[in-house]
Amino acid sequence: MNSWLITGFSFGMFILFIIAFVFIAFVRNAEGRKKSDVFEKLFGKRANRHRLNLLYQRSYVQFQRLPLLRKYIWKIRKRLEVLDSFDEYAIRRQTMNIAFISLSSTTILVLLFCLISRDLLTVFFILFGAVVLNGVMITTFVNRVEDRLLKRSITLYEDTRHQFQRTKNVEEAIYEASLTAPHEAARHGERIYEILTADDQHKALDTYYEVAPNKYYKMFTGFSFLVSEFGDRIVRNSSMYLSAITKLIQDVNYEILRRERLNYLLKGLSTIVVLSVVFIKPIELWAKTYFPVMSDFYSSKLGFFVKVFFFLVVLLCYALIKKLLANDEARYVAKTERVLWEKLLYTKITLLRWVVDRFVPAPHRKAHFQLTVLIKEANSYLTVEWLYVQRLLLSGIILIGTVSMFFYMHSLSIHHVLHDPLRGTGIFGKLGPDELAAAQKNTDFDRSVLAAMEDAAEVTPSSLITLVSTLTQTSSNDSTTIYTANRIYQKYVEIQNEYFKWWELLLCMLLTCVAYFTPLWLLYFQKKIRYMEMQDEVDQFHTMISILAQFERMDVETVLEWMERYSVIFKDPIKNCLNNFSSGQEEALEILGEDVAFEPFVRIVEKLRLAVEKIPLLQAFDDLELTKEYYAEKRKEHFNRLIERKAFWGRIFGLAPSMYLIFLYLVLPMLYLSMTQAGASFEQIQNVQ
Question: What is the mean pLDDT of residues 152-181?
Answer without folding.
Answer: 90
